[in-house]
Every structure is written in C-alpha cells, then in structure tokens.
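Query form — protein Fatty acid hydroxylase domain-containing protein

QUESTION: What is the three-dimensional structure of this chain?
INPUT:
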Amino acid sequence: MNVAIIFGLMFFLLVLDLSTGQFRNPQASSGRELSINVLSQILAFSVRALLLVALAWPIARFLPQWKGALAHRPVWLMFIVILVIDDYLNYWLHRMAHQWPLLWRLHKPHHTPTYLNVLMAGRENSLYYFLVPALWMAPVLIYLGAGTASALVFGFKGVVTMLQHTGYRWDLWLRRYRAGRVLLDNVEKLVVLQDFHHAHHGLGRYGHASSNYGNILCIWDVLHGTTHPRQPQRQDAYGVPAGMPVESGMVQLFWPLLRDRRASLKQATPLTQSSEEELAAADAVIVTAAGIAIAVTR
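ANSWER: The structure tokens for Fatty acid hydroxylase domain-containing protein are given below.
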C-alpha cells in the first residue's frame, strides 16, 4: 500500500513539474541528469533490499528473545517513537554531511543539480545510502513486531520528501489564499515543507545551505540553532557555488570507487575562506567539502 501511494504521488508530482515547465531547465531535462536521478533511485531501493536480507539472519540469530517484542504496542505510539528517533538521527547525519569533508563527498550529488524536482529527491552517492538510519532500522523494527508502524513512518517520510523537492512551488500557490496561508503557517511550524527545504538548496538572497538540516521535523533545527528564517520566496538559483568542481555522473554516484581527474580542472578560480566580517554580513554561507566557508551576498 505504501509503495503504491509513494509511486502514485511521484507520478502526480512528476506530471505537475512537467506541466508547469520545471523541465525547461536544460540540465533538468538532459539525458545525463535523468540517468543519474533514475539510477540513484534504483540504488536506494537496492541498498534497502540488500540490508533487509543481510540483516535478517544475524538479527534472528543473536536476538531470538526480542522477536515480536513490540508487537502489542499501539501503532500510533510506535509511529511517533520511530519518527522522532529516525528523524533526529537523520538531522545529525545531514548536518555532518555538510560539515565533514568525507561525508560531504557522499552527500554532494544531492546538491549539484541546478534545479529541484521529484526525480532528484533521493539522489545521493551509493555509499551514503548505507548511512541512512531508516535502512538499518527497518529490518530490526520488522523483527520486533513494529513493521506496520515503521512502514507508515517511512511511507510518510517518502511523501514529505517528494513534496519538499517538487520544482513547482505549490506552497506559494496555496499562499495565494487565506486558508492556504493559515494551513501552511501552522503545518510548517512542525513539518519541513518546500520553503524550508528549498532554502537549504538555494543560492543567493534566500538560500542558506548551512541551515535547515531537518528531514521531516523542524524542531531539531530550532533546538540546535540551525534554522534559517522562513521567507516564502522563489530561490534565485540552486546548486553548488560557482567554482566548486562538479564530477561526472558516475563519479558522483560511485566515488571513491570511481574517480574523475577532470573534475579538478572545472574549478575556474581557487576557493578562499571568507573573512569573519564577510561571513557575518552574508545572506547565505556555503561550506565546501574542504571545510571552506564562503559568504554569499545579494
């Protein structure tokens, strides 16, 4: 059921992006980008299936007494517990992926596109998928008897993630109407939606890649001071800063197994650390894989 809903929503949002001209961006409609995005989706599902199979035996072998231990817990309670734990772990994984050079190399493929749409929502390096908490939690939760709650949580996460990455700004359309503004103003206090996440991907006046790390819930950014104030606006641009190397598609997905020496030649000018004054006055700050903080101004 969850799979049908997720694929149905993906198809609907894909049609929405197509019908509203989101694929007019030459990069979004290029064969190279479409191939990377589709392959990344296949990799994500493959890693999920691999971990389900690989962990089944050791879990049953070493935790026989825990089989079905959570089967009698209310589904609604387990939904909340699983969502909170998974999302908090995701917050820290995502935050570290922007602050640690090695993890940034694995997460960078998600930020190289100069567009957003539903196809690139799950785009990551193949090794990054092995770090995603949900893929490790799912086999354990199924064994413990919380399979229904975990399926609902991960299905919910899939729906929200696709809504976040849709290129068409459906949130700005809703904000044309009073009821829509009231709805979003309340929902966005809890759940990460388009404006919050587009700012994380954005460059320019309203973008702020070094904030808004939350996957589903906004509370973690609020608690840890990494929230960028919401400004319901279209982003000026998406992607990585000019001058940052962008590797070929296969290298993006399979580094360090594959390497692209030519990527270093694409760096037009050396990236230098912005001064403290520049960072303080910046509209956005980009942290590179090498840990260099670059101020972005209007």
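ADDITIONAL NOTE: DSSP finds twelve helices and four strands in the chain.
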